[in-house]
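REQUEST FORM: STRUCTURE PREDICTION
Request ID: SP-0412
Submitted by: Lab K.M.
Chain count: 1
Length (residues): 173
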Amino acid sequence: MNMKKLIILFAAVLVCGTGFAKDQSIAYIDMSYILKNLPQYEQANEQLTMLSKRWQKEVDAAQQEARVMATNYQTEQIFLSETMRTEREQEIVKKEQEVLELKRKYFGQDGELYKKREALIKPIQDEIYNAIQDLASEKRIDIVKDRSSDPALIYMSSKLDISDQVLHKLGAK
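STATUS: Completed
RESULT:
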């Protein structure tokens, strides 16, 4: 008798759980497609690329300066006194440390490029998120997934893709 109640309870939970899953509405977006079609994202990316190139040139110039210093030192080393050799070696080490610091300053984990990307891209991402949230609310969508970052997704009906609707909500395209 006790086993019979357990089986009935299990069956009821299974039926209810299946019912809830069927009632959920799912839609997909393609974030890379959305970003590619937003002019403000392209402009932000161009600005980041230009900054990155400018800063990389600065780092490259400092590295080249350090290499020249090291090469000159190697050539002149035999003609220098012990004090001058030590002094030049310290200058080279100092220059190499400056290069490392410059790399960290621009390209490090909390560097200028990261901060600039955060300042330019995060507002765009927030705007997209808000548009998705509004659209999901309007259309009574429970779950929105990004198909561009879902490696397990093999097939999706095009009627579930709301990417163009998100772009329209953002005023693009």
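NOTES: The chain has one domain: 24-170.
Reviewed by: T.R.
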